[in-house]
Amino acid sequence: MSESNSDESTDRGDGNLREALVRAAVAIGDVLEREPELRAALAAVVGAWRGLPETASKATPAPSEAPAKATEGTSVESGENPEAVPADAATREELQELVESFSGPRSESDGTEAPRAAPTGPAKPKVSVRIIAERCRLKQRACVLAAELDEHLEGGQVVVPHDDFQPLINQAKALPDCYLWMLRPEARGWIAAESWEQLGRNFENLARALALADALVEDSEQNEEEVRQALTLAAEAQRAVRQAVVPCVPPGRSFEDSDQLAAYRWVAHQCETLRIYVARYMRVDDPADPANWADLRSRITDFENLRSERTEAARARNKLFGKVRYEAQRLLDATPEECQQRIAKIAAASDELLVGGVKPSDVRLRELLLPVYEILEDADDQIDHEGFQLVLREMDRFLAARDRAERAAENRAGTDAPSPEVERVRAWLAGREVVVVGGEERPEVVERLRRDFGLSALTWVATRPHESTEVFRAPIQRPEVAAVLLAIRWSSHSYGGIREYCEAAGKPLVRLPGGYGTNRVAREIAEQASEALS
Description:
Strand order of the largest sheet: 2-1-3-4
Shape: rod-shaped
Low-confidence stretches: 1-13, 53-90, 98-110, 113-120
Largest sheet: 4 strands, parallel
Order of helices and strands: HHHHHHHHHHHHHHEHEHEHEH
Radius of gyration: 42 Å
Structural class: mainly alpha
Number of strands: 4
Distance between the termini: 128 Å
Number of domains: 4
Mean pLDDT: 77
């Protein structure tokens, strides 16, 4: 046989031996713990494998050659050497490492195999964060069971408690890629119960932190600082799990829990997507102490309680928004008798919303009220709700800004030609004075109306809640005043006395239900005061 053929034969024999070793190691499983004879036989195979590279090229010793030193149990006088454990017998950890170096982690789908360590990185997890959290909860329970199994083993009980073990395995099988590696036979008997408890507590923290962060990320009214705090808690929890895994795997082995890695990737993905920077626990050199699980659990609980309180407040706000929507929709078809009742309910709900933290300029509230904008303040009797008046004032600002934008657009398009009503009103009011009552004075509106209508002056009397009507008497009674414009949406119900002042002074009162655009104001004046001014 040639030298090359000899080497090829040796390599083939080496490979066959390794394959046989892998099959044997996978088959025996936890039987090694309670079958000393089988363990000794397999240790002999490992010993032979260890010596294979060194002895492959050496001659086989003659049968007459005796061992230099007898092992325990060897009869030197008779020359017999019964099956004894070699002095260099492989440990259980060495054997498992050897098996995995050839075949990789076991692939039986019993819910307990350890996954191959995936490369780290900020890639998005393949499953939802809810699945990751659920798997962490199962692993927390598996850690408790692992400690119990070790306790049974120490007491001499080698039979696995089926009532506890199998239901957990079934739940793991129901989830995608759920590996309860802490229940593998090779994890039995050498890990301290305290290590299992610490790992379980940190898995529980991770599940809760992920659920909390996910709820805040998905919240339509999310607060960036709250999301940052929740992601930081999740980052700390996943790093604590990473550190807690270390005492629960054989020394010298490199192993990373798949759900810890998935949690890290999810946090990194959210930070990148939301442009949020988490300063701690997202680097390898920034570990979290797994022994501090109780403190972390307390902080997560505090955040959960705060979140719960805010969720209840959000439910209350949504209920009030629903009430405003309901009353506003029915206000459009309400009879005169129902109108005031529905306006009162809308005003009361608006007040409660403002007390609960909703701003008067809230877009959601404004959009609900815009369809009934004219009806709300055109009612004979105004509702005295201070919060509701603030909402109406903010709506006034919004509509005025919208009017300015529309006017600017008309100017850019060259369509700012005055309407026929503007020409008519200008003929009536040129050289005379007009008084505007209600809302807040806007210099640009004053100047535009004065110019477009040819007025000698425009006096704007701003209104304040609960202000006496006496402040309006003198401006209205001046002889040079031709008309009074009342911004009815923003006047308090007590301003009903303005009508009496106008009637006494013989001045027409024009109510402005919309904004302050020239064409709109001219249309209202023409419709309401044409007889008095023409």
